[in-house]
């Protein structure tokens, strides 16, 4: 499945620096607003030690990780919903993503200007959110006008209009549409998706700090965390400058560098894994001599639909899934030993795939 996480924020908060480090790409990074105009796109492997442990035991010809796509979108400014700056481009690009990684600047640097002339993370967060909410209000208002014309003779249109009115009221209170997601029925959630609102997208905050503030949090970071807690959102703290340095090193050199800084995992690894989790995704594996591969599915996907991620023919002709949990593979040291210990299960099409399941699908090719 195609997964896109949009990297957003005000100009000069470190979006392109972080994107470059994340993808080892060459996105433009400069000290002036809108140096990113067209979105830069980078496909990144999702780090998963389980995949490589499987490969160490099986020695396949090929190892294929699962991936996530990051989109570095032009910096947003106040008035973007009216087309200020690159507002219209920004908003159209962000609508095409599945989730938002919101970069917030939490560092001083006299050589990097701030678009408002001062560092104020809470103000920055609220500026971005207000622009997204105002953009959704405009979009929803247009949709409601079209729906209203159909409500007299169309029950489905009436349902949609009623929900749109409810969501519009939430947005008018300067709250994101996603804030009422758990109050909605399954049917209403389906309708909400049809509105294609930006503020229904899950969001994670990336607090970009200087080298000295990774351990001893500065006042900017503490202020940002308090605001994010009010929004019931997740956050991670990274130093874009360190991540940029790390990206230029080999895997072994990266380990040594992180060790010298007393850091277990790079900020970018945390960012990738957090974005993956944010999208409610899990990984299952297929493993054989030709290839050991990680596959991405939504949490709650059944065996038949998971088989379809590999190939539609496997889903159509699905018979059974042979499943060994990664935990059992690790405990017994190989798939064969896990099988011999009776840890391989035959599951039907309604079985819900669990994170880390190692699967072989039996299917009728006819």
Write a brief caption for the model.
It is built from 14 helices and twelve strands. It is an alpha/beta fold.
Describe this structure in words.
This protein is α/β, with parallel strands linked by helices and 366 residues long. Helices cover 41% and strands 19% of the residues. The strands form three sheets. It has a six-stranded mixed beta sheet with strand order 2-4-1-5-6-7, sandwiched between helices. A hairpin with a 3-residue loop joins strand 8 (281-287) and strand 9. Helix 1 runs parallel beside helix 8 (240-247). The chain starts with a strand and ends with a strand. Mean pLDDT is 87; it is low at 25-37 and 83-87.
Percent of residues in beta strands = 15-25%
Calculate the mean pLDDT score and round it: 87
How large is the radius of gyration?
Answer: 23 Å
Number of helices: 14
Physical arrangement of strands within the biggest beta sheet: 2-4-1-5-6-7
Query: First CA to last CA: what distance?
Result: 25 Å
Order of secondary-structure elements: EHEHEEHEHHHEHEHHHEEHHEHHEE
Question: Largest sheet, described in full?
Answer: 6 strands, mixed
Structural class comes to: alpha/beta
């Amino acid at each position: 499945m195609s997964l896109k996480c949009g990297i957003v924020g005000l100009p000069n908060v470190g979006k392109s620096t972080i994107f470059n480090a994340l993808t080892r790409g060459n996105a433009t990074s400069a000290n002036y607003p809108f140096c990113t105009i067209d979105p830069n796109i980078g496909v990144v492997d999702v780090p998963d030690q389980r995949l490589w442990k499987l490969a160490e035991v099986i020695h396949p010809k090929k190892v294929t990780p699962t991936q996530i796509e990051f989109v570095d979108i032009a910096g947003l400014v106040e008035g973007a919903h009216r087309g200020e700056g690159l507002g219209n481009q920004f908003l159209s690009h962000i609508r095409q993503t599945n989730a938002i990684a919101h970069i917030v600047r939490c560092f001083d640097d006299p050589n990097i200007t701030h678009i408002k002339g001062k560092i104020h993370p809470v103000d920055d967060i609220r500026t971005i959110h207000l622009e997204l909410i105002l953009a959704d209000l405009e979009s929803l208002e247009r949709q409601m006008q079209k729906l209203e014309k159909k409500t007299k003779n169309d029950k489905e249109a009436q349902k949609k209009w009623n929900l749109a009115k409810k969501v519009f009221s939430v947005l008018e209170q300067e709250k994101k549409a996603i804030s009422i997601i758990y109050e909605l029925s399954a049917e209403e959630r389906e309708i909400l998706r049809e509105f294609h609102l930006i503020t229904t997208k899950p969001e994670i905050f990336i607090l970009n700090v200087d080298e000295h503030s990774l351990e001893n949090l500065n006042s900017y970071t503490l202020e940002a965390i308090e605001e994010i807690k009010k929004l019931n959102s997740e956050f991670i703290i990274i130093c874009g400058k360190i991540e940029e340095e790390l990206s230029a090193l080999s895997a072994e050199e990266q380990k040594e560098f992180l060790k010298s800084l007393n850091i277990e995992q790079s900020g970018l690894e945390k960012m990738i894994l957090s974005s993956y989790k944010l999208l409610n995704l899990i990984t299952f594996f297929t493993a054989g001599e030709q290839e050991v591969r990680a596959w991405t599915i939504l949490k709650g996907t059944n065996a038949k639909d998971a088989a379809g991620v590999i190939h539609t023919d496997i889903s159509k002709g699905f018979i059974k899934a042979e499943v060994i949990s990664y935990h059992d593979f690790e405990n017994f040291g190989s798939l064969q030993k896990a099988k011999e210990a009776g840890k391989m299960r035959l599951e039907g099409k309604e079985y819900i795939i669990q994170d880390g399941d190692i699967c072989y699908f039996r299917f009728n090719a006819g």
